[in-house]
Every structure is written in structure tokens, then in C-alpha cells.
Amino acid sequence: MKLDFKVEKKEENTKARLGKIVYKGKTYETPMFMPVGTQATVKTLSPEEVASCNAGIILANTYHLWLRPGEDIVKKAGGLHKFMNYDGPILTDSGGFQVFSLAKPKDISEEGVVFKNHLNGDKLMLTPEKSIEIQNKLDSDIAMSFDECPPASASHDYLKNSIERTIRWAKRGRDAHKNENQMLFGIVQGGPYEDLRKYSALETVKIGFDGYSIGGVANDHESKEDMYKAFEYSTNYLPEDKLRYAMGIGEPIDIIEGVIRGIDLFDCVSPTRLARHGHALTKCGKINIKNAKYKEDFTPISTECDCYACKNYTKAYIKHLINAEETFGARLLSIHNIRFLISLTEEIREAIKQDTLLEYRDQFKKDYFGDKNEQK
Predict the structure, then answer these.
(1) Which residues are catalytic?
(2) pLDDT for position 372
(3) Which residues of the chain have pLDDT under 70?
């Protein structure tokens, strides 16, 4: 049975939407942050710990699971849900982002992309049909179309040609999709150009998908202004009754700005990556738990946070764990950071209900980017 999505309310002062996803009798609210479980696991955390953060949808990575253990192994196990013991909704990306980071421009053809396996150097080819076939076997609840992921620095002409190919690939993927219980999302590209975003969105909508993603917005070299333009230009031309997903977005302020522009779903590896480097997200910005000032700080990461780490452990203890390279430290920070972003979306939903999202955004920026923010 496919996910069922409905927009419950629109915020008066923005394009923000409050929505509900019904999945196997359970209801999940949007806007939502989705933790990333690249290898069919959210790094260092058990499914129970992920669920304790109030997570809804989580991600798994098509490319990595194709290489190991292989999609046929996952299918034999009964699909991703049984394989990784997660009973909530699962989204799989198409593998495109990983493939294009490994491929050279000359390796991209109409058929697909040729690249080297990053594990053993073998020559591989991924096509729209192959990506969908893998995702069908993984049996995720949401599958992604295979698209070209051009860099933010790409020219208007390059992006136009890339979009044309992505649209053709989207049609091929749509035709190859055979899993009736799985939603399939189309992906909108176009960089910061309004004409390209409009064209990509309208042509992708014509093909007909269960939801739509905004791609090309998580490039390290892209400015915030260009990112927010891409949000705005894309959502202007997407159906009101379909889920909208900004791929790879995990900075708190970017999530807020994305919601303001009509986006429902966000994902990023950042909360667990930050955790492994000793960083914690707080309302007053990122803090580096390795800093000397936390050596005798016997308070939680945040007194406002209700996560397992904050209810049971102190900054001093977590600093000790990180310095000693004990994985429990990264685990505690991962729990906290994931809970922080999920809690952020819970507060955003409340602000939408009260029609106060712009005020919430302004106060969040004052707190997060104030003098207390270490940003280290």
C-alpha cells in the first residue's frame, strides 16, 4: 500500500504547508526531517534509537546497497524494512549523486553513466532502468528517479541540455517502475535559473509522479541566495497536492527557509557527520564539544532537549568519550543532533498552525547566529 499524503493547512503569510502522511495505519506530519541511513543503518544508531528521536521517514542509498550486499540479498531478506528492522517509511535515492561524483563528463551518455566502483575499481554502468530495478527490489516506500546531478557552477546552456536528458531519463524510469506499493518521485533541476526551474518542473509534472524533489540545492559551492531561489522557482510550478522534497538539506536555517517556500521533506547526513567530529546542534548554534571549556561542564548539551543524550549525560562526559575516541560519544551526539532537527520541524509545524512562521524564523536566526555561536 502506497503512502497517502494530504495538505491539512497552508500558512497565511508564506507558502508553508502542514501535511499528513498515512502509512500502515500510522500518521506522520510534515514538514519533516528524514535521517539518512546510507548503508541501511543510521550511523552508530539502532532502529529503536532512531525511532526514539521521533523519526518518520528515513533514507537508504541505492548505489551503496547495490554494491553491497546487493539488491537481490535485500529482496531475499524480505525488503529493506525487514532487512534493517525499521517499521517506518523508507525512501531510497536513485544513486545518481554518488555516481556523478565518481564519473567524468565524458562518461555520461544517453544510455546512462559509466563509472568505477569506488570499492574495487570495477567498471559499472547505471541507467534509469537499472536504478529503478534496484529500488523496486529494495522495496522502499519512496523511490527516486535517476537524474543527472550537474554542479552548481554549470552554465545555463549545460544545465538546459542536462535537464533535457534528465526528463528523458525520468520517462524511462517511470516506464520501468513495477512496484505498485512504492511511490516514485520526479526530480526538478535547473540551478538558480528561473526559466530552467520552471521548464524542468512543468515537463517533469507532465510525466506524472507521486511526488517531486528539488535537486541541485546541496552543492557546497552554491550560495544561500541561489539555494533559496531554486526552492522558490521550483515549488511555484509543482502540484499543491503532492509531496515536495529538497534533497540533501540539513542546515537548520535552510530547512526553515525551505518550508517557507513550500517544501515538505528534507534529508542530510550532517547530524551524524557532525556528531562524529564532536559537534552538537543547539538553539544557540553549533558547539564543539571538544573545546576545553566543556571539561568540567556537568550540564546536558541542551536543557531544552528531550533526547536520550540530554536526559542522561553531560557535556563533560561526552567530551571525554569523543577525546578518547569511544564510539558511544558519537552515538550520543548523533541521537541529539537528529532529535534537534526533528524537534526543529515539530516547532515549525506548530508555527504553521499559528501562522507565525516568519516570526519563528527571525527569532531562530537571532538565537542561532548570535554571539554565543561558536561555529567551530
Answers:
(1) 93, 267
(2) 52
(3) 220-221, 371-376
